[in-house]
Amino acid sequence: MSFVFCADPLTPGRVDPHFAGQARAAREAGGTVALLDHDALLAGDVAGAVRRVPRDLGEVWYRGWMIPTGRYAELAGALAARGVILRVSPRHTVPRTSCLAGTPRWPR
Question: pTM score, two decimals?
Answer without folding.
Answer: 0.84
